[in-house]
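Form P-L/3: holo structure prediction, ligand pyridoxal-5'-phosphate.
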Amino acid sequence: METTTVSSPRVSPIHMDAETFRRLGHRLVDDLARHMSEIADGRVTPGESPSTVRAALGTDSALPEDGTDADALLARTTRVLFEHSLFNAHPRFLGYITSPPAPIGVLSDLLASTVNANVGAWALSPAATEIEGQAVRWIGELLGMPPTSGGLMVSGGNMANFAAFLAARAAGAPWNVREDGVGRQHGTLRVYASSETHTWLQKAADMSGLGSAAVRWIPTDDQQRMQVSALVEQLDADRAAGDIAFLVVGTAGTVSTGAVDPLRAIATVCRERGIWFHVDGAYGGFAAATSEADDDLTAIGEADSVAVDPHKWLYAPLEAGCCVVRDPERLRQAFSFHPPYYHFDEAVVNYFDLGPQNSRGFRALKVWMAIQQVGARGYRRMIADDMRIARRLADVVRSEPAFELLTSNLSIVTFRYVPPELRHRTREKPVERYLNALNQALLDASQKQGAVFVSNAVVRGMYLLRACVVNFHTSMADVEMIPALLAPLARELDVRMRAAAEGV
Ligand SMILES: *Cc1c(COP(=O)(O)O)cnc(C)c1O
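OUTPUT (holo model):
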């Protein structure tokens, strides 16, 4: 057995003296600053194969028995990460909904991990718990929720939606569902959401024991918005069958096309029937703060709970999600395992009582700092600018004869390449199939090339390119050049693929 001398002060292998920490830290910050200023000049992603990335990182090597020098390790790791990563801080990264990090958030993460507060219990994190409380209240205010609402920070939109789902389940089941579970002898619990809802809902239904078949998928209209008449019909039919509706989910900005459900009408249906109304605003929720917000976005203020993602439109570095609940006691009733008489101090929040996590990191700091640096006014402006830039992209695409614009909502634009001579034949089955294959190939080729990064959507069976502007680095010029960046690739692919396509 290995023995070590535990001297005083103790020197352990993981120790770093203050002078070394300062030197390595300064060099790292210099490297980060240079990297940030040079991102726009390079490619969005090197587009390498998994084996290339593994070889560069040495991720196939064995567990190191002996340690190594921190100085060289940090320098090498910084370099390989810069060489082999995808950068969502590139001005032409418009894929998925993954935003660039706010620099204040990067610095705040360093500060937060140095304090290393455990924000599970107030006693372990007095300052951090108070900061989280204020960050959540500010987020609620941006969303138009009442000042008495509250909630907690979680890792992202999925977790924020899960927390709200479980709060709704505990509140809506006519029996003690937390103790007795969801055995069918009690009745069938049902949740309602549009067919465009993000896949968190299947996971929530599965993990909560309801099963994904408990979800009633409500059809959407031609703009991918929930059909409220179909919701009402389904609720009536299920009530007649003795099922228990405990939750209706509306989405403020679907992942695919940015559609906002008719939230005002859904809120009314829920209020009339006493059903919990949850809004998945992971992407679009913060658009409610802008002056352009329409009546459906401002209806978020009527929700019983809202899930938002500060790591999207508030530009917090990953990870930061937030669940805001109109009556925050509902979270305690869904997650706490204290008996009701065990109220040791009513004046403080112990976050382990309000969510599934026990030990919790200080992810609120980066959000709280950015909100102060930017102000509500600054966020309103940045979000409105992203939407304006997206509308510009839609205009540019519309004016290009070889591109077809399909949708434009919030800051998401979907479009596809259609060779001009096929434009009038898009309803023919073989042409439809060909266009899907062509646009899929275009997406792959453009992502590999790395000049612009968009992702995809499928709308009414059409494979589309999808650009999402949640990026404070993106300018009008960046989106104006997109058709010109994609068209040569598309033409080249079209020549090669059309020769082999049948019936086109
Ligand atoms: C991003 C997103 C999610 C998932 O959020 P994560 O932060 O990725 O967990 C859920 N719903 C919508 C509408 C989203 O845009």
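COMMENT: The two ends are 73 Å apart (CA to CA).
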